[in-house]
Amino acid sequence: MDYVQITPRQRDEMLKAVGANSIDDLLKQVPDELRLARPLDLPAGMDELSLRHHLSDLAGQNQSASQKTCFLGAGVYDHFIPTVVDHLAMKGEFLTAYTPYQAEASQGSLQAFFEFQTMVCQLTGMDVANASLYEGATALAEAALMALNVTGKREIIVSQGVHPHYRQVLRTYLSDLPAIYTEIPLKNGVVDTQELESELETDTAAIICQSPNFLGHIERVPTIAKFAHANESLMIQCFNPISLGLLKRPGEMDVDIAVAEGQPLGIPLQFGGPYLGLFACRQQFVRKMPGRLVGQTIDAEGRRAFCLTLQTREQHIRREKATSNVCTNQGLLALRAGVYIAAMGPKGLHDVAQLCHNKAAYLAGRLADAGLSLRYPNQPYFNEILVQLRQPVDQVLAIANQKGIIAGYPVGRDYPELSDCLLIAVTEKRTKAELDALVDVLNPVGSAPRADHARQ
Amino acid sequence: MTHKTEKLLFELSTPGARAIDLPASDVPTTELDPALCTFTETGLPEIGQLQLVRHYTHLSHRNFSVDDNFYPLGSCTMKYNPKVNEWAASLDGFANLHPMQPDADTQGALALLYHLRVFLAEIAGLDEVSLQPCAGAHGEWTALKVIRAYFHDHNQPKRKIVLAPDTAHGTNPASCAMCGANVVTIKSRPDGLTDLDDLRAHLSDEVAAVMVTNPNTVGKFDAHIADMADLIHDAGAFLYLDGANMNAILGITRPGDFGADIMHFNTHKTFSTPHGCGGPGAGPIAMRKQLAPYLPVPQVIKTGDSYSLDYNRPKSIGRVRSFHGQFNVLVRAYAYIAACGAAGLRNVSETAILCANYLAQRIKHAYALPFGPPDGQPMAAAPCAHEFITVPQTILDRGVTIMDIAKTLIDRGYHPPTVHFPIHDCLMIEPTETESKAVLDDFADTMLELAELSQRDTAPFKAAPVNQPVRRLDEVAAARKPILTWTPGDKT
């Protein structure tokens, strides 16, 4: 099925109308020697019924997180998605609309993005937000590039508490540019402020930290921001949007640029994408921001209306001098996040965050009772806990998987010194019974608590 | 379309209203340290479920979309987005798969990605494909990083210049700048094709790549592309193909066959994934073997009968995004290619070319085609590819601007063609292959009627749009004093 509606008879009529004897007359612009003389080597096309069987079969070869009990987080979280989110985001008028360059024909998406920008500001306490970027890691990279541009300095200092993928992406973005990438290690699972102070240079454009960080710990962002500002550097925070139902918002902690993976806001896990990059900053940087911005204006009759604005920052006007090469936002996903935030409201977002924290704390307590302690028991956490295991992590994960539990993320992959630790994420979807079942898997009967389990 | 003003969510907010309730906590409540918590009001809206549904439904009525309107939008390939693709993306095994699950849990997803990789390599006529890039512009940037890495590895770090024609899409130079390359513009000839002499004059041992769109942005297949490729290769540089116009050549010719070394696809153009008011897209890149060691990690591979993600690529440029690509966009692209098959894809391009030529034929006596056949000759004498450009001088001469024409088309229910790109005062028209002949004929009739109207009365053009939710906007004021968020007390 190729979705072509022109019938063979119409095709002949149209060929005749353009003065062609056959389609080859229209293809002669491609020289013979450059033509593909055979059909593409692809499987034969499929009717819809066969296609559905084929795709169902492929999907069925996966064991999704919904078929199991998911304690896997590491930057992507298995939150509840209200039915209205799917319903509204599936509307063809949103799904199949183009980028809103023609404002009069796009007031629906433009207003939805204006509302999204406003809600991101309300959620983060920041002054301005763009209409979204690709996803969390590239949003962070864009924040770093903006910091270089705003400050005229060259160094970016990054905490090792930032998601390992994000740090890798940042390194890729900064290589080939006149920029210096510096990582600072963690101490007790959080930013080592002494190390940070010693690394700060006059050439430091920004400090980047993530809070809650990759290990789940809440960083002392205001303290880190003080160091940054005393050094005339910018403070960039990577946050988890759901955590802001409870935690201090970036705007309350003197953060200059706040970025996040927006996936927790009503976007399915979908094997890593598409997701949603959130990007918010201080008003003073607005003309240096990357990405699409929607602004309010009036029409010829004085009515409120919305349009893309400050486009002179963008590639289609500024070309190589643009603030970024980004050409679109993640429209449909920004719409989803907007519907999600509005559906939850301030009370719902608070409740979700509190539920996540309650359940993580319950799990941590049950594990402690069983002699399995947190790796850094003194660090506050939101919904993700770092647990030190007695058996090899891979073995525990395999056993749990057999019981239908995805027990967590083996952080030893990225932090070799933590190879005996498991990072467990708990969302509002997990029930007490599921939490209890996880405890049983992590603490099999007969396995004695290790003598050093309480070490800091 | 509705004319009624739709209030903002914040103006609809009612304290205490909720759209969703959540389960009660089945574990004790645990308070976090208050020093870490926020206690200030966010100002987020509070709305009941029905009101929320109505609000977004009203907004949906204030949008043009492919499901509702014809979009002859040049360079954007606004084809139909098949509904079965959405069904596929919503399958539990795809939608609810966590990206960090072990490979054993994700064999179906990895198999799909692997086969898509193979499909795209075949369509491109190139050896290797990376599915990582998030969108076309991200694909351009990734590909340029790959080229830079190649030259670093081959001890030619001074190759930092990228040549791009003056008709290139704006993302091309912007992507270059983001990887530290210097962009130099090369001229186009009056017939819209690349000026080979100017290209020759600019090639040197400092040039890393030449970015070319082919068929190019004026809607012509550049018959000299192979000669260009030879020039570029002789100078030791790579030919980068912007795949924006792949919808014109599927199964007819392949970038690898005409000399391209590396390219990006736009799945939301060529492979029917929905534009979603601006995203998500996906921008896979294809390349020759010699560039493959540098492609980003991870790469999906097949070993025996099992699929996995390969991170062990020591020469890789590294990661370009988190996790493994725009997976659920790629599911839709896969579903489309699988539905079409080889014969279907070829028919897609043949029909896209036929539709563009037919539409051009129907209107060209009133809309001059600067790159079309001589007056009085049919399109077959100098056919366009899947899109064409018109500079409607007789209408412009009446004082009607290109934007006036665009806004008038909105009133007639058509999304306007691309305006002022790649040259000033042009309309760029791409009907795609998925429209019916009746739609093409109706659109042609409307265009002809407007041409005729412009000679009698230009007032309707100046007033347009008049039957949309809003009249023409003051976009200058929006940029001069940007209002980017709602503030309490703002009037409707």
Structure classification of chain B:
alpha/beta
Number of domains of chain B: 3
Shape of chain B: globular
The averaged pLDDT of chain A comes out at: 95
The CATH topology of the largest domain in chain A corresponds to Aspartate Aminotransferase, domain 2
Q: Structural class of the secondary elements of chain A?
A: alpha/beta
Low-confidence stretches of chain A: 450-456
Number of domains of chain A: 3
**Total number of β-strand segments of chain A?**
16
| First and last CA, distance of chain B | 19 Å
Which stretches of chain B are poorly predicted, pLDDT < 50 over at least 5 residues?
A: none
Largest sheet of chain B: 7 strands, mixed
Query: CATH class of the largest domain in chain A, anyone?
Result: Alpha Beta
Examine the coordinates and then state which fold CATH places here, giving the name of the CATH topology of the largest domain in chain B: Aspartate Aminotransferase, domain 2
Summarize the amount of helix of chain B as a percent range.
Answer: 25-40%
Oligomer: heterodimer
Strand numbers in spatial order across the main sheet of chain A: 2-10-9-8-7-3-4
Keywords:
heterodimer; A: 456 residues; alpha/beta; Aspartate Aminotransferase, domain 1; Aspartate Aminotransferase, domain 2; 3 domains; seven-stranded mixed β-sheet; three-stranded antiparallel β-sheet; disordered C terminus; B: 492 residues; 12 strands; 10% strand; globular
Structure description:
The complex is a heterodimer of chains A (456) and B (492). Chain A is an alpha/beta fold and 456 residues long. Chain A folds into three domains: 8-57, no CATH class; 67-76 and 346-442, Aspartate Aminotransferase, domain 1; 83-339, Type I PLP-dependent aspartate aminotransferase-like (Major domain) (Aspartate Aminotransferase, domain 2). Helix content of chain A is 36%, strand content 14%. Chain A has 14 helices and 16 strands. In chain A, the strands form five sheets. Chain A has a seven-stranded mixed sheet with strand order 2-10-9-8-7-3-4, sandwiched between helices. A three-stranded antiparallel sheet of chain A has the order 13-16-15, with helices on one face. In chain A, helix 6 (107-124) runs parallel beside helix 12 (331-369), helix 7 (136-151) crosses helix 8 and helix 12 crosses helix 14. Chain A is globular, with a radius of gyration of 26 Å. In chain A, 62% of the residues are buried. Chain B is of the alpha/beta class and 492 residues long. Chain B has three domains: 9-60, no CATH class; 84-339, 3-Layer(aba) Sandwich (Aspartate Aminotransferase, domain 2); 344-475, Aspartate Aminotransferase, domain 1, CATH 3.90.1150.10. Chain B is 35% helix and 10% strand. Chain B contains 16 helices and twelve strands. Chain B has a seven-stranded mixed sheet, sandwiched between helices. Chain B has a three-stranded antiparallel sheet with strand order 10-12-11, with helices on one face. In chain B, helix 7 (171-178) links the parallel strand 2 and strand 3. The longest helix of chain B has 37 residues, at 327-363. Chain B is globular. The chains are: A alpha/beta (456), B alpha/beta (492). Chains A and B meet through helix 1, helix 2, helix 3, helix 4 and helix 5 of A and helix 2, helix 3, helix 4, helix 5 and helix 6 of B.
